[in-house]
Design brief:
Blueprint (H helix, E strand, L loop, with lengths): L1 H19 L3 E3 L2 H17 L1 H7 L1 H6 L4 H16 L3 E3 L2 H27 L1
Antiparallel strand pairs: 1-2
Helix pairs in contact: 1-2, 1-6, 2-5, 5-6
Length: 116
């Protein structure tokens, strides 16, 4: 149930980001659902490998390079999913920041609901 909740929240967040960030677009809610699914899979499968490969850079930047990797993952997913467009690194970076904040909120909500 938590997985479906996170998936829906991330899809809604993608639609929100599309309305806020210029150069970032999601055509339909269905596209947002597919993009959220592919982004989740990419973050689960590809991102850990990239984090290990870029560990020295991450250490030098005190972990801030992780935001760059998140932006690159968003940009990468936009090349896979039709109707999901990112027109450069800056929109991808801004989208990754907003999605990170949404993820923090989602984690807090789930943790708070489990404690109650």
């Amino acid at each position: 149930m938590k997985l479906i909740f996170r998936w829906l929240i991330n899809a809604i967040a993608l639609l929100l980001v599309a309305n806020i960030v210029p150069g970032f677009g999601v055509s339909t809610f269905y596209t947002a659902l597919i993009a959220a699914l592919v982004l989740g899979l990419a973050n689960a499968l590809i991102r850990p490998i990239l984090l290990v490969l870029t560990l020295p850079i991450n250490i030098l930047t005190l972990g801030l390079f992780t935001f760059v990797l998140n932006a690159l993952m968003v940009w990468f997913v936009s090349t896979i999913v039709n109707g999901f467009t990112v027109e450069g690194f800056v929109p991808a970076f801004l989208a990754a920041l907003i999605l990170w904040v949404v993820s923090l909120g989602t984690n807090w909500l789930i943790r708070h609901a489990e404690e109650s």
